[in-house]
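Q: How would the structure tokens look for this protein?
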Amino acid sequence: MISLGRIKNYFKIYESEETKAVFEQNEYDSNRLSLWVIFSCASILLIAWILNLAGVFTVVNQRMTVLAVLGLAEFSVPVMLYFKYKGRKRWLKYVMIITLQCVCTQLFCILNHNVILIMIIPVLLSSRYFSKGFTLMMSILSALLLAAASVTSVLYGIIDLNFYPSIENGTVLVIQNGLRSSVTALGVDPARAVVWMLINGFLPRLLVFTVISFISVYIAKRGHNMVLRQDEISRASANVKTELNTATQIQNSMVPNIFPAFPERKEFDIFASMYTAKEVGGDFYDFFLIDEKHLALVIADVSGKGVPAALFMMASKILISDRTLMGGSPSDILEFVNDRICSNNQADMFVSVWLGIMNIDTGKVIASNAGHEYPAIYRNGEKFTLMNDRHDFIIGGFDGMVYSNYEFTLNKGDALFIYTDGVPEANNSGKELFGADRMIEALNINPNGSPEEILTNVKNEVNAFTGGGLQFDDLTMLCIRYNGK
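A: Here is the predicted structure in token form.
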């Protein structure tokens, strides 16, 4: 025995309160579609009425006029309700679909039996609501109305004697005026005509209608599952986005982002910026005081982008900063970091690093370059130029690598610019690279400006070159100007 609970479950639209909103929105969208179908059917009914008056159809004008006026009046009910409630009521679907069924049935009663195709419209339209119970209910109701319309069309509408086997040669005779007397004159019993109509006309069409109904119920079920799946994906995507936003905040907090960074230190002015291609990236910069006399400067670029690069970035940054605070030259630090990363680098990722340690009193910088970009240096009164320093191998490639140091001195008014490859490799719509030359030109727009102004000029030039298009790589820059003691 089928319980009431199972029936309610079959008609259930949404699975939980969490999915209620998305299914209600689907029903409102479906109501809009039903409205347009009603407008279309009303237009067709009006056209059929006009064509019948013109003699194209063979329906009695009085009957067609009654049908047209009645059908248009019935259509006006769901239309007015739709606009009154702006389509935002779930019960509107019952009014709209059942009204459509009634008008289609009336049309089928007086026209040729080929009009049976119109009875498919309400069933197919009901499947758009993605409720298999509602679609099944509309299918059953349409089948019952189809049977009633078939009988009505024989008794009061049009009879196609091809469905009556006693007429020789299957002559097609369509009789309207004086139907009962005309049929009797042909030796046809109206009651038997109804039976034969149901057998030869209704049953074959009912089989086709059943298949269409089955397909409609299947569409409703699949649509219901599709909405659930899309909602699940949307929720998962929203969760991922929330987690990525949190990861972005965590990553941004991993690098110094409060400027001026050392307001009490007048010997230098420093500024840095980082623009990731995705929510999180693999670039990072860092600067920190090792002691009162020494400032560490770091910029690095991890292979790849996104979450894996960000995780590798954080691990690399922690290793570099912790080891730097322990003391030693940049080469010693990079050798240690390389060995530690290579000891457990299952992802086979690597990172290019430029590490410099500046003596704040003298401006002397000891640096080591592990496969990173050439720094750019500004000498007071001159222009920015690239410093073709020595490049050693990247960090994370092979263990046991040996790194070398080199030295240079920043005098009063000099500046150092270090960056990742996101700057010279930024490309425009023509796949042309921004390049190191354009970068140097951007640096020299105002080489005497503050580090923040210098970085702003470079970023503006990159944006102008790329046309504000999609950023393909992380872009990180750091600039320090030495003011001396």
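The CA atoms of residues 331 and 403 lie 5 Å apart.

Confidence is low (pLDDT under 50) at residues 167-180.

Upvote if useful.
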